[in-house]
Amino acid sequence: MKALFIGGIKSGKSKNAEEFTLMHAKTKPYYLATTEFIDAEIAQRIELHKKQREDRFITVEESLELSKTVSKCDDIVVIECISMWINNMLFHNKPHKEIYAEIETLLELENSIVFVLNDVGGGIIPDNKLAREFIDLSGIISQKIAAKCDKVFHTVAGISTKIK
After folding, report:
1. Cross-strand pairs, 79
2. Structure-derived torsion over alpha carbons of residues 132, 135, 138, 144, reported in degrees to the nearest 10
3. Which residue positions are annotated as catalytic (predicted)?
4. What is the CATH number of the domain that holds 30?
């Protein structure tokens, strides 16, 4: 089973994805944290997420090699979040071909996975190349993930609505 929770920043998608994961877990589920420590504000966000999930998950931190990490998990995995992973891949100068290949490999795994992804395509076209590249990658990857997921939820104001 694969599911996607997509929505804006602070929409409640992570919390709802965690609850969904807990409902579908056979044992203690995995929480794959992708965020690299960038600055103090990101560190605060990470701490809030840790408090939110308490001790209900086995936390694994991996910022680049998602499929290799997920393949070692023996129960459902929530990946929080694909948007930060895309950011990491761009920061480490990974080519688009490698980014898409990693997503395809991840989607082919037999593991149950719950993806969390920011919906960043609802605004204007940014005036800088890197932001446009990030938005383009995010949009294409969200389509790839949604196409292979059994369930897709759009989250607004803490409410996740099933769209697939």
Report:
1. 32, 115
2. -80
3. 49 (gmp-histidine intermediate)
4. 3.40.50.300
Q: Which residue has the tokens 């995010």?
A: 138
Per the structure, how many domains does the chain have?
1
Query: In angstroms, rounded to a whole number, what is the distance separating the alpha carbons of residues 13 and 9?
Result: 8
The Cα–Cα gap between 135 and 115 comes to 17
The one catalytic residue among 24, 49, 96, 154? 49
Intervals of the chain under pLDDT 70: 37
User: What one-letter code names the amino acid at 135?
Assistant: I
Binding site per annotation, positions: 7-14, 50-53, 61, 80
Of 157, 97, 144, which Cα lies nearest the Cα of 117?
144
Containing structural domain, residue 133: 2-162
**Where is the binding site for GTP, in residues?**
7-14, 50-53, 61, 80
154 is catalytic: no
Q: In angstroms, rounded to a whole number, what is the distance separating the alpha carbons of residues 153 and 164? A: 7
CB atoms near residue 124 (< 10 Å): 5
- pTM score of the predicted model: 0.92
